[in-house]
Amino acid sequence: MSVYPFKSIFLIVALALYVSETLGLSSPPEINGNLTYLWPLPSEFTHGNDTLSVDPGLLLAVGGIGGNSEILRAAFDRYRGIVFKHSDGLSIFSRLRGRRPAYDINKLKVIVHSDNEEAVYTLLQSMQEMTESRVIGVMATKLRTFGIIFTLLFIYVLCRNQLANTVYGALRGLETFSQLCAFDYGAKSVQVYKAPWYIRDKPRFAYRGLLLDTSRHFLPIDVIKQIIESMSYAKLSCHRLTVCFLFMFPHIDLKLCQSVNVMAEVDIPGHAESWGTGYPDLWPSPSCREPLDVTKNFTFDVVSGILTDMRKIFPFELFHLGGDEVNTGCWSSTPHVKQWLQSRNMTTKEAYQYFVLKAQEIAISKNWTPVNWEETFNAFAGNLNPRTVVHNWLGGGVCPKAVAKGFRCIFSNQGVWYLDHLDVPWDKFYTAEPVEGINDASKQELVLGGEVCMWGETADTSNVQQTIWPRAAAAAERLWTSREAISTGNITLTALPRLLYFRCLLNRRGVQAAPVTNSYARSPPSGPGSCYEQ
Amino acid sequence: MSVYPFKSIFLIVALALYVSETLGLSSPPEINGNLTYLWPLPSEFTHGNDTLSVDPGLLLAVGGIGGNSEILRAAFDRYRGIVFKHSDGLSIFSRLRGRRPAYDINKLKVIVHSDNEEAVYTLLQSMQEMTESRVIGVMATKLRTFGIIFTLLFIYVLCRNQLANTVYGALRGLETFSQLCAFDYGAKSVQVYKAPWYIRDKPRFAYRGLLLDTSRHFLPIDVIKQIIESMSYAKLSCHRLTVCFLFMFPHIDLKLCQSVNVMAEVDIPGHAESWGTGYPDLWPSPSCREPLDVTKNFTFDVVSGILTDMRKIFPFELFHLGGDEVNTGCWSSTPHVKQWLQSRNMTTKEAYQYFVLKAQEIAISKNWTPVNWEETFNAFAGNLNPRTVVHNWLGGGVCPKAVAKGFRCIFSNQGVWYLDHLDVPWDKFYTAEPVEGINDASKQELVLGGEVCMWGETADTSNVQQTIWPRAAAAAERLWTSREAISTGNITLTALPRLLYFRCLLNRRGVQAAPVTNSYARSPPSGPGSCYEQ
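The joint structure predicted for all components is written out below.
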């Protein structure tokens, strides 16, 4: 049994009774004799050297006060479908051959210590009070005809602290469990290699985001659902929609919010030209269509109205107010705006600040924590509401400045984490470090995490998923796995084989993840070959 | 009401009571005020100018002796899911606003004249005895509070002849119905514009195929299922798997066969090098790995064994034996093969024929109709089994020669219908004509149809769907719509707007169809914009 660093403050006691070779269950892993590939890597784990078969009729046994969770049962059914995808075809073959196989594992036990399914939506009282915590899953074998054998396969501990223990941690555990399961073509059943497994895991950052731009190209709700589903495979948690609200409104589906938090963005006062299509008064003039008209109460009434409507749909505590790329040039050339500025003795830069701060007040009044792109911090850090989360994008070095002033920060450096930059390879995504340049541990805590950004100028339904994956997964491991456990050194040896495997896993689950090692993202495979090598 | 050519031999009586403007149901189509876009175009239809709303709780009423079909009920549920995708979000909004809308249409009546769900698998006694025939769907409005209003929306007649009237025709009708339904953002409900509709439809060709190469890159079962599902949107019917059988076996799922026929291919004696990995004796020598060893009984025993196993899985009457690109060069340089040829006084070309004919006999003995690539016809047409279906690919002009000799033929001219040829635009796919060069109507009948080919050298899970769609749809209309009704002349005006719309429909249904008008297939959109224009 190989042992990985295991610094648990809890004592984990595991009974492991090895299944004998005579049961015929010792087929080697399909891909590689030495490793079961997990992505993202758990922070701590050990494993053994046994192979166990899993019953396609796997049952879920839930314990703890959160044991009645509908979300958990639905997720279990979903994962059972994923793990036993081949069981239909298999049963046909079994029937043809008259085989009735016996299995080592027929029950998955999950213990959930909180019955609060809503906790994930109130994440940010303190962002550190992680809700994906301390869920323990224990797997035991069935009663065999020749006696009782317990084989402890799998202990999964997600912990951050002892405050919260919700069902969402169990979902992470189910994902890990599903990655331990592999269909074995020899044994013709689902197997877990290298058992027993002891896994103790927790996310390094609470905020592990993917920005999805639904404005440049309309993304149908089916595609958004597919992407959210695939995010959970990589243990991404937060998801941001750039909301083109006129189009998006009829599409909002509350059920989307169950597995990830959805942070909406209303990008003001710039990037809002389209608003004037419905309300031309929001444009300073027909020839000056953005930034929005800062002078009118009507502008802020509309912002407030939109945020009121959106509050009913987005329970997540963060709301993104944009604030980037604001060119105030045409404000000063629009007579009534110019007059308004003069009467208040304001520069256009001050008016930009006035707009952003007023929007922040509106968001806060609706019980939202405002997020703004870094331009607002760069321009008037001293006046930003102290609750503001600064969202980096222009380059490195912003989060260190933001946390030094006490702000929280999200890392999205465009040089490494913009998915629409097709020339940025997986390893650049992988090695990007959100707390780079921040040495003080208490300041590092102010970095909520990071977000990879899928801007949609050249990404639509046809190719958005192959642009997101697999590179978003490289960032996902950076955000999930502890700094001690994440692959370093020659990542071509330590991380790449796992990422190749994870890309194939995404493919098997129907996600259009592109080849990993193409020099250009989302380019086709260069020739025939195995997914595990492309 | 505009009237299209309507040559029905049945009299169709339609009661149409127009819904008054005062009901607030007369919103214009979202995309275009003049047209509802159908793809492929029905062979005959008329429509009116009314707008009807459709109840999200739409019921299915089935009549005829096939009314108890499970397949029909499952398909109805699937299509209801597609048509009312937005109803969740909608109901949230309705609840917020306290609205309880009334609908014009709350029941879909479908009459199926045959209870034979298996008929589709015995298609080829005569390929002309189409099973997708004469299914009539009639839609009527619900009982309104202020009186009884019947609004006949939709008569759908699929006919080829009077021999078969199975549930599969009803599935085609459901697809057409779903394309008539559009979510209206103004009315916030699903609407049918231009009602009432009278549609009489039938497929021009029985064989409307897509080849999926699962050998060059492994395609997971989820992806194959997605592709089969999307084929039904374009009314494609036949589907061919190039079977890499060692990998495919555990994956076969009989349920796949319900909506399309699956023709498997075992491509022998060439393109079978991988067989020797399992059975090295199939290779003439370690340095001569293909064509398969023609001299050994073992070779044909393996072929027979494989075909026996596959017969249990593939109920479709056609089976593809390949026979293409056979380079017999190394046969004559392998001593024992050379000796075998000399002892029988055979040339290598004659040995190739010997192999192909022997494989045909094996397939026929298992109650299969053999399909062979055109090389077999080109090399020894006179000796081919007369039941052979000749599969064109090298260029134009082969089907005319094949049908002249009494063979049936499938059209797949690589210059126009190979999807891996990325420089072939949608309009080349659209204008390709399977019976080109065949004037005699009785000979035209021998062209079963055609097949677009998705060879997988540079297509894997990440991009196969964007390589297939939308160009496969262009061919699908050629294969479905009658020659009288298909768009001709300036197809940029008559077909392109509908194809743009159909591509968006595929996107909405989660299919990664690429932009239509790119000069290169599967390239990304060139910039932001509406799906309806890209």
